[in-house]
Write a structure and sequence with these properties.
The chain is an alpha+beta fold. It contains 6 helices and 15 strands. It is about 25% helix and about 20% strand. The structure holds 2-amino-4-trifluoromethylsulfanyl-butyric acid and cobalt (II) ion (2 copies). One cobalt (II) ion binds next to loops.
């Protein structure tokens, strides 16, 4: 069992100092959760945030841009008009273009904050608003989730290191609609184990998309994703799901990536939602850093994710945020 010093980060991954976190309970001899006993050292720790990036006044903004509070409107997302679909396609294409620019900049030595600057500027250049910025108080324009970070990593002063894997998650608000996508890529050369996790996670997203069709139960998406992950010995994160998307960043229906036997939703033509499976090499359980955003795997095992926004069509699904060729496979 690795014993941190008083001022080291706590073994639990909270990001707090050991003395402010689990030191007292350890001294009382309380048992740690099973994952904690085999816990690795974190590869990512909270860094320094740059000043808030500004969005020019002429860019149309979502309802939360000033207040940080998201709208409560719940829309019947299956009756999507042609005009709404056209606007969703533009928002999705913009998110794709921004994500491509961010992924192309990933290399050893670049900080996640520099990637955030690229996402922010690229979004504004396209006339869009970077949806994460001030969404429920989120401080940046991009999410960067490195190694054991499962989701919602906040870009900061940490330089990427060769051997890291990083998920970059871009959402753009354009023409009154949100488009949301993410990919995991390699920083320099990575281990064969990391490569395998990333590949299987990508396959899970494709398998989920490929069962989407009007009339199919929504929980089939989670069923096929969970089956593929488990067949490779990986776990599916349960604390975060895909989601309906459109005028609002997150709305009904949520889309679990594991099988929810009792979920009554049926897929209907015109629905727009994301599928965004997160796979962990170890436990599916997550822990939250003190920033209340960054989720890490509870055993600090490696985690990967991919995300597309899709439109349900007559015969299946149209991917609104790009294609079936991920960045990590290009040129291989
Ligand atoms: N893009 C993320 C998703 O896939 C949401 C990020 S919320 C933020 O749903 F506030 F962290 F940006
Ligand atoms: Co999403
Ligand atoms: Co996303």
């Amino acid at each position: 069992m690795n014993q941190p010093k008083r001022n080291d980060p706590c073994w639990c991954g909270s990001g707090k100092k050991y003395k402010k976190c689990h030191l007292a309970s350890d001294e009382r001899g309380e048992t740690r959760p099973p994952e904690a006993r085999a816990r690795k050292q974190p590869t990512v720790r909270p860094g320094v945030l740059s000043p808030t990036r500004l969005v020019p006044a002429h860019i149309p903004k979502p309802e939360y841009a000033e207040s940080g509070r998201r709208g409560g409107r719940s829309r019947d997302c299956k009756k999507t008009s042609e005009d709404e679909i056209a606007r969703m396609r533009r928002a999705g294409a913009a998110a794709r273009a921004v994500l491509d620019e961010v992924l192309a900049a990933v290399r050893p030595g670049i900080t996640t904050d520099a990637l955030d600057a690229i996402a922010h500027e690229a979004t504004i250049r396209l006339g869009g608003y970077p949806s994460p910025l001030n969404y429920m108080g989120y401080p940046k324009s991009l999410c960067t989730s490195v190694n054991e970070v499962v989701v919602h990593g906040i870009p900061d002063s940490r330089p990427l290191e060769a051997g890291d894997i990083i998920n970059c998650d871009v959402t753009v608000y354009l023409d009154g609609m949100h488009g949301d996508c993410s990919e995991t890529v390699f920083v320099g050369e990575v281990s064969p184990e990391a490569e395998r996790l990333v590949r299987v996670t990508w396959e899970c997203l494709l398998k989920g998309i490929d069962v989407v069709k009007p009339g199919v139960k929504l929980n089939v998406v989670g069923r096929v994703i969970e089956a593929h992950a488990k067949a490779h010995g990986y776990s599916i994160v349960r604390d975060f799901t895909g989601h309906g998307i459109g005028e609002l960043f997150h709305m009904d229906p949520y889309v679990a990536h594991y099988e929810e036997r009792r979920n009554p939703w049926v897929i209907q033509e015109g629905m727009t939602f994301t599928i965004e499976p997160m796979l962990n090499m170890g436990t599916h359980r997550c822990e939250m850093w003190a920033d209340d955003w960054t989720a890490v795997s509870a055993d600090l095992s490696l985690s990967a994710q991919f995300e597309h926004t899709i439109l349900v069509t007559k015969g299946g699904a149209e991917i609104l945020t790009g294609g079936r060729e991920p960045f990590f496979l290009k040129g291989r």
